[in-house]
Structures are given as structure tokens and as C-alpha cells.
Amino acid sequence: MRLKRPPDWLVYAGVVGALLFLSLNRREAAKAPSPAQAAKERPGPVLAPASPFDPSVTVEAPDRAGPATGTAFSVAASGVWVTARHIVDGCPQAALVVGEGQGVAARAHIDPAGEAALLSTNGGAPPLPLALQEPLREGELAYHPGFPQGRPGEAATRLIGRENLVIRGHGARTEPVLVWAEVGRTGGLTGSLGGISGAPALDASGRVIGVTIAEAPRRGRIYTTTPEALARLIASRGQPSPGASTSGPPLTQANYGATAAVLRRDLRVAQVVCLT
Which of the four CATH numbers 2.40.10.120, 3.40.50.300, 2.60.270.50, 3.30.200.20 does domain 41-275 have? Predict the structure, then answer.
């Protein structure tokens, strides 16, 4: 019995299908690692020390503090918090929000040489672990849980390098800072991250490595204090000199939103307001 020859179009379709299958399989096998995996596998060089020759960014500081909101985080269960200086500098009364329409009065202690400040309250929350004496590497990730636009939210960034922050106006000074490129944020959050100032910058081990102090929305940049500046501020108020604390919950680009929500729920990261 003679078999009927299949039509040409069926033969061609089979060949194309086989080629497509092989192509897709090869593409899957060569899939690039995620940004977080790549950063972990190929860490960048250690960040060079601060230098007066680093690029500069200039900001104007108002003479008087107006109504402001920001973020603070706990560094001592006795009631010691860190926030950004411009949130509370000149503020007649600062308060930490602990519930809907509820706040706790906080006393502000300004760092005269930097863009961070300490707050003290009667009682506090469990402190975040610190990592202020370890070298930083270019390209490493950081996570910033806080209250952008006055609402719970967070951002993820990658370390670019150093700049000198030049403050003009009230409290004029120049301060070395770290520069981070934004690589992610809360879903649905658009526009400015204003209100995230004072948030901790957390490394992949959930430890604080700086304080979020400013953003450049058009450039997609976030600025933080250096670890050295934060260590100096904490020690200036008689707190123990911070070294490498135990790790917090591990952070990745997949889970930092959920982890940030837990930190806010436990008031380890809280909203700070200036009452006028």
C-alpha cells in the first residue's frame, strides 16, 4: 500500500515549529540573572573615601520650618530615634505618629555639622540593627521604608558614589553624602518621594547604613548621609558607639515592600510631623 505524501505546507510548519522550540529553549538556558542576583554575584569595588573633590549638589534651606512631615526610625528602645534634620530644625514641636490621630511628643537634637537629627521620646520601639563601620561597595542595593507623600511607602536604590551636599541659607554647611539611583518603589506611587526624608537606608541584611535626606526626582537620585556621619551623631548624644549589630530580616527586591510594612506596623519606622 502506497502512503500519501503529506502536503508541503505541513512539512514546512513542522520544521518552523521545531526551530522555534529549539530557539526558545536556548533563550531560557541563557536567561540573565536578576539585578539582585547579579549584584550579589559580582559586587562592585569598595567605595572610595569622601573627598573635597567629589562632585557637589546645592540645596537651599529655608530660614524657618513650616508644617512638615517625614520619617524617623528607632535606634534605642529607650526612646531614641533618627530623622532628617530639615524636618525638625526650627520646629516648635515635633511628634511621632503612633496611631490614627495619635502622636507622641519628641524632643529634637540637631547635628550642627550634618543633615540628620536625633529625637527622644518617653519610651520607644525595638531598634533597627546598624552597620556603620563596614565598607560600602558600588552597585550595592539599599531599601528606604518610610512615608513618601505622607503615606506608607518605600523605595529601592543602587549605590552610585559620593557627592558633597552644599547647604545654603539656614545652617549653611557642606557635608559628604552618598548618591543612590532609584531602581524600584511602591506600586502605584508616582511623582516625588517627599516625606521619605529621615527613612533608614537598609542593606540586604536589614541593617541601617545611612539616613535618607534628599531626592533629585528628575535625575532619579536619592541622597543619604554617610555611615560615619550617623555614627558620629548617635555617639554625640551619649549613646553607645554603634558597630555592626545583628542582622535584621533579609531584604530583596522581591520582599522589601512586605518587610517595610512590618517595620512600620511595629513602629520601628514611624512618621514624624512638625506641629506649628
Answer: 2.40.10.120
Average pLDDT per run of 10 along the chain, which is 276 residues long?
Answer: 49 46 38 42 81 84 69 95 94 93 93 92 94 93 97 97 86 89 94 95 96 92 96 80 69 96 97 90
**Domain ranges in the chain?**
41-275
| pLDDT for position 112 | 84
Backbone angles phi and psi of 87, in degrees to 5: -75, -35
